[in-house]
Amino acid sequence: MATPRLCSGPATRREFLRAGTLGLGGLTLADVMRLKAQASETGRLKSQRDDTSVIFVWLPGGPPHLDMYDLKPDAPAEYRGELKPISTVAPGVSVSELLPLHAKCADKFNLVRSIAHDFADHGGGHKRFLTGRVPRTPVDTVNDSPMAGCVTAKCREHKSIGLPNYLSLVDNGRQGPDVFAFGAAYLGSSYTAFEVPGDPLAQNFSIPNISPIAEVSGRLDDRARLLQSFDKFRREADQTGGMHSIDQFNAKALSMLTSDAARKAFDLSLEAPETRARYGQHVWGARALMARRMVEAGVSFVTILMENPYQSGVPSLKQGTYNWDSHSVNCHIYDDLRVRLPIYDQAVTALIEDIYARGLDKKVMLVVTGEFGRTPRLESQIGTQTGVHQPGRDHWPQSMSMLISGGGMQTGQVVGSTNAKGEHPKDRPLTPSDLWATVYRHLGIDPEWSFPDHRGRPMPILPFGSPISELLPS
Fold first, then answer.
1. Contact between 126 and 140 (Cβ < 8 Å)
2. pLDDT tens digits, 174-224
3. Which terminus in the chain has less CB density within 10 A, N or C?
4. Alpha-carbon distance 161 to 135, whole Å?
5. Structural domain of 291
6. Would residue 392 count as lying in a domain?
7. Would you list the DSSP string of 88-136?
8. What pTM, to 2 d.p., does this model score?
9. Amino acid 30: pLDDT
């Protein structure tokens, strides 16, 4: 995986001010406001439906489709692996035995089993998948086209709800737009995600994005004082005249981050205990719950990172690995999945059920995926940490599976299929571009809209791809 780097942003007349830090290399919110003002020459675009949202659950490393959503019980043992499929409440839909909660709510989501692309490197796979465009290079994670969340932020920049329109909930140490090809490329750094790193359940959880105005109020470092700090910060700024001593962009950032909308959206204690228990006492579940609160508050696009399961008190596994990159040298794929998938199962299904229970299923579309699948044929090598032979799977962009829910679509479906060994699409071959065409349609964004690249050339949001008809509102 690439190390975090600051996105260079546009040049010449769209050259932007670089200032501040957000975690490990991002921009402060005040900088984002300033950059957006300087980028105003591109004009204001309004999407056709501003009340819709997307929650994008990112599983970096590549989840194993044959062990989760596209099991092949009749394939040879070296393909089917150790796990068995189980039936679900949706006729004809099966999932892994390690996903029993999925089985109970399969009538509320769809599985897409026939998306594929040609980029087997993590960097190339990230860029190809997250942008919906073919990247110039097959490696590294510095985008030459904007990630879908950045496109949404650009098209929704006119929308003011007291919160950023694009948020990303990530692990500490995984901040920055170039870690997972989340960059905005020629749109400019102001359209990258407003990042909220860390575990929302941790006692020291804070919103470090408030740091650019730390000289006015001090940092918010104590999770237990989070709500008090929002109010105290706002009162002190008014009493000391701090609101008048900072520039208009800092003032707008201050107003946003001390608004009632922000205060309430970040406060998980407002949730009923049974709801919090359903999501689970784990960072993945806490992020999923926070994402639901964000879209309910009107945020247009929220990315949730579900990468490392060995957090929130879950002990590290010698034969496990921190992401979904289940090479045999990295992990024993099945030992790792027996820890990883129950946590994932709880968090994702809680989010699905909550979206439907709260009547958000037409407004919110949920997409859960990684950059590619894993090799259908199992490999066996000596593990770096274990020193013994263990099973694993390599990168495999030729076939992959993903979960889609909400968006007003008919659910309980399987879209597409792969051949008997899960090697490539058999029916209904699709690409990441088709997925994003579907997402943009839900958001009311025309993928034919163009934005100028660094040379001033008009670049359409998507050069190809069509909405997936099975996933359109019923």
1. no
2. 999 999 999 999 999 999 999 999 999 988 888 765 433 333 333 334 444
3. C
4. 33
5. 12-200+271-471
6. yes
7. -SSTT-EEETT-HHHHHSGGGEEEEEEE--S--SHHHHHHHHHHSS--S
8. 0.85
9. 59
